[in-house]
Specification:
Methane Monooxygenase Hydroxylase, Chain G, domain 1, about 0% strand, 3 domains, mainly alpha, about 650 residues
């Protein structure tokens, strides 16, 4: 945030001192190109410069054939828009294609505003400088003081382990609460940073930390009141802090073994069975986290062989054809909205609202909900930034005498804009638009400006572009994100069913991956018209994971009667989960849950009999406790789901 603000100040001073035009666009490049890590910033910056260079060269070529021929220019604009948006949807490197299409299209629209070919050519050449030099400054500064992706991953895991260790000591600081709320989603893009051979270890550690935080939610506040349990939790805290120090590279950091964590509470005579059932799986998870950190610090030779060698299966002919069709439809929708916006503001001779065309490019998303979400952020950012720009023009700029003062005023707005832009994906785009609107309003030339219509026209143009995009994307081939959320939830619940049936270890990762997708898409899907939003069930579904994980991972030799009783209780749960998964994709109500009462009573009798005998089976008691908790949560989920989905379907 501070780095971006400092660079904006530097760009303002350079542009004013050297009289580089379009200072507002130059400052916006800092926000547009800045990313969390050095490698991504450099890759995006270099790719952006390549794209802009190609686009400007194409523009000069198109000028030679379409400068005075609107009948040729309009089809060229439509083709450039369509090709750019098609590659955005169809190719992994589609952002470069979109950038080329956008710059080429926008350059062709400038013929209406700058009828002189010589002036227009000079403007195009200046554009390369306007865009290029702030990107160069940004990349150089990031290389010097920016953060590497591997450091972001390492520090993020270490901070979570430190916060968890303090929580186990009874200190629930703001960092722990924030990590409980945000999870590990922000670290997932950086899990592949570093040596390729250790990538599976980094991903495994990330999943272990996510599971660890889920276990901490289950830990009751009074768990450490028993002396033995409190002592074990403190030792677990030491393991977390030791793992943090080891992850940060402190030499010879000891990592306590599992015996030092688990021995006392397991042998405690004062700790209740319920407390042990809650604490023991947590301590086992701490052990797994410490082991994963140790493996990552000193990868075993087999780490290279553990790397997944399964090649990605090529998409089937049907899937490839469907994706191609979706890409064509997406490109046609954006082209229709963009060309309509251009014809409207050109027909009205109101070039100030040209942001309508720009909006069509930058708010376009795959789904209706994504498009609504992005243009809402764009509109809010433009209103806030434009209002601040008008306020600066009226109250601040008349008192400024130097470029330094202008840079300070710009920094005062860029700092909160950068704070929003570096936040979560839910609001980050608003920060970019806030910065752009302010810079366009205030940085209009090399002297004080009193023109406030720039901010007004920009907001009006954004509103026009948003209206056109919403109409086109909701009427023409609408793509509902709710369908994707339902599919992800269905796959995650099916993974839970496979886990409780004793499926392979990958099912746990499948659950976490699919639930993360649903959790990320759910806020945007809620913006789409319609009811019966299954995303409200995500917290309840997530709460089932820890009980099922404990039940499926608990090992121990059980009597045949106990195994049979466990299966008799678990099978109806697994069947209900499969029915729930099917209800998501088939858009059916949440099925009712009926527990096998006879099987439950039989299992309870076996557990009580085992507890009374000397050397009773602790694993059986542990599974029974979590089965009870799982059954209660499933009943609550079924009741809640049936009430809310029935109401949604009726409305």
């Amino acid at each position: 945030m501070f780095r971006m603000t400092a660079l904006v100040m530097l760009v303002v001073i350079v542009s004013m001192a050297l009289r580089v035009p379009e200072a507002g666009l130059s400052t916006y490049m800092i926000f547009f190109i800045s990313k969390a890590d050095v490698a991504t910033t450099a890759r995006v910056g270099i790719g952006g410069m390549v794209g802009v260079t190609i686009a400007l060269m194409l523009s000069l070529v198109f000028y030679s054939v379409a400068f005075s021929e609107p009948a040729v220019r309009l089809p060229l604009m439509a083709c450039a828009t369509f090709v750019g948006m098609y590659f955005l949807r169809a190719s992994p490197k589609g952002v470069l294609g979109m950038l080329i299409g956008f710059v080429t299209t926008y350059a062709l629209t400038l013929i209406d505003q700058v009828p002189s070919a010589e002036v227009l050519t000079r403007f195009i050449l200046w554009t390369w400088v306007v865009v290029g030099y702030p990107i160069a400054l940004l990349v150089l500064l990031d290389v010097a003081v920016g953060r590497r992706a591997a450091d972001i991953y390492r520090d993020g895991i270490a901070q979570r382990l430190q916060a968890a260790g303090e929580y186990l000591r009874g200190i629930a600081g703001p960092a722990f609460k924030r990590f409980q709320r945000t999870g590990i989603d922000e670290l997932e893009p950086f899990a592949n940073a570093g040596p390729t051979a250790a990538a599976p270890l980094r991903i495994n550690l990330l999943r272990q930390v996510e599971l660890f935080y889920l276990f901490l939610r289950e830990l009751p506040a009074q768990a450490n009141q028993t002396p033995e349990v409190g002592s074990a939790l403190r030792r677990a805290s030491e393991v977390c802090l030791g793992a943090e120090h080891a992850l940060l590279g402190e030499p010879e950091t000891p990592l306590p073994g599992p015996a030092s964590v688990e021995q006392s509470p397991a042998q405690s005579s004062t700790a209740s069975g319920k407390t042990l059932a809650l604490v023991l799986p947590l301590l086992g998870c701490v052990e797994d986290v410490a082991r994963s950190v140790a493996e990552l610090r000193n990868p075993p030779p087999r780490a290279a062989s553990n790397e997944s060698t399964a090649s990605a299966h090529p998409a089937s002919t049907g899937e490839a054809a469907a994706k191609k069709t979706e890409s064509i439809q997406f490109a046609l929708k954006v082209t229709l909205a963009a060309m309509t916006a251009y014809l409207i503001y050109t027909g009205l001779d109101w070039s100030g609202i040209h942001t309508a065309l720009i909006t069509c490019f930058f708010v376009a998303q795959d789904s209706v909900g994504g498009t609504i979400h992005k243009f809402t952020l764009r509109l809010l950012g433009a209103i806030v930034g434009g209002a601040l720009g008008i306020g600066a023009i009226v109250f601040v700029l008349p008192h400024l005498e130097s470029a330094g003062g202008l840079a300070l005023v710009t920094a005062a707005v860029m700092l909160p804009a950068a704070w929003i832009a570096t936040g979560s994906e839910t609001i980050s785009y608003m920060g970019l638009q806030m910065a752009f609107a302010f810079c366009l309003a205030v940085l209009q030339g090399f002297s004080r400006t009193s023109h406030m219509v720039v901010a007004r026209d920009r907001v009006i143009g954004i509103i026009l572009g948003n209206v056109l995009m919403s109409l086109v994307f909701t009427v023409l081939w609408p793509v509902r994100l709710r369908v994707s959320v339902r599919r992800a939830l269905s796959r995650s619940v099916e993974a839970l069913s496979a886990m409780i049936r004793g499926g392979p270890e990958e099912t746990s990762a499948n659950f976490q991956t699919n639930l993360a997708v649903a959790r990320k898409q759910a806020p945007v899907a809620r913006l789409e018209p319609g009811e019966d939003d299954r995303s409200s069930l995500i917290p309840a579904i997530e709460s089932l994971f820890v009980p099922i994980h404990v039940i499926s991972q608990t090992a121990g030799v059980l009597p045949a009667s106990a195994k049979e009783a466990l299966h008799a209780v678990a099978d109806p749960i697994a069947n209900w989960l499969s029915d729930l998964a099917r209800s998501f994709t088939a858009e059916l109500p949440v099925p009712a849950f009926h527990q096998a009462e006879a099987a439950v009573q039989r299992l309870k009798a076996i557990v009580n009999d085992s507890a009374e005998r000397a050397g009773g089976t602790q694993d059986l008691q542990l599974r029974y406790f979590w089965l009870e908790r799982l059954s209660t949560r499933i009943q609550q989920l079924a009741n809640y789901g049936r009430e809310h989905t029935t109401e949604g379907a009726a409305s």
